[in-house]
Design brief:
Layout: H1 2-33, E1 45-47, E2 54-61, E3 71-78, E4 85-94, E5 99-101, H2 107-111, E6 113-115, E7 120-126, E8 145-156, H3 165-174, E9 181-194
Parallel strand pairs: 2-9
Antiparallel strand pairs: 1-9, 2-3, 3-7, 4-5, 4-6, 4-8, 8-9
Length: about 200
């Protein structure tokens, strides 16, 4: 009886072994290509305060970087808060890495920016400073999903007197008592594209 079971098992493997091998090869190929990665099925999102909707957000991998760890983030946000806001500081933190940019590294936040009601402002964060652009040396690939947390510090310039942008900025920025600082944060989940 034992010989018969062994013979049946060998006949089964000889007959269907190629199918099992093909199935394992297909699964291995899917895993290696990233098709079965959990991040591939994560939906993209861009969430901030309700009056700061964002759209057209994506990450870009620099293909000229040999380590594949350099990332650019493109963020487009619209001010629908009902008042002009003066952005004074920005921080971006990549999940699995370090802070992407901070005041002094992002030209938009370094000089400050007045964003009027209804206007959009776009950030293009180009990570050129290796210290601030680390992603734990994890190579990035096109199609991967990455997450960045964003924090903006701004002032409400609703009551700032002045007819032109310079007067409004000077009044809003210099008047620390009448225009306190506010902080808002958001989360961006987007796909990495190749440049």
């Amino acid at each position: 009886m034992g010989m018969r079971k062994g013979q049946i098992a060998m006949e089964y493997l000889a007959t269907y072994g190629w199918a099992l091998f093909a199935m394992f090869a297909v699964v291995a190929l899917l895993v290696a290509s990233g098709m079965l990665g959990a991040g591939r099925y994560q939906s993209e999102e861009c969430t901030f305060a309700p009056n700061l909707p964002c759209n057209n957000v994506y990450f870009e991998k620099d293909t000229t970087d040999a380590t594949n760890t350099r990332l650019m983030a493109h963020i487009n946000i619209t001010n629908t808060q009902g008042f002009p806001m003066y952005i004074t500081d920005c921080n971006y933190t990549l999940v699995g890495g370090n802070r992407l940019s901070q005041q002094g590294h992002d030209p938009f936040c370094d000089r400050g920016a007045l964003v009027r009601q209804g206007e959009s402002f776009q950030y293009d964060i180009d990570c050129t400073d290796a210290h601030n652009c680390l992603t734990s040396n994890t190579p990035m690939h096109a199609g991967e999903v990455r997450t960045v947390y964003v924090v903006y510090t701004f002032k409400n310039c609703q009551d700032a007197p002045g007819a032109d942008e310079t007067a409004i900025v000077n009044s809003c920025w210099l008047d620390n008592a009448g225009h306190p600082f506010h902080v808002t944060s958001g989360k961006i989940v987007a796909t990495v594209r190749e440049r």
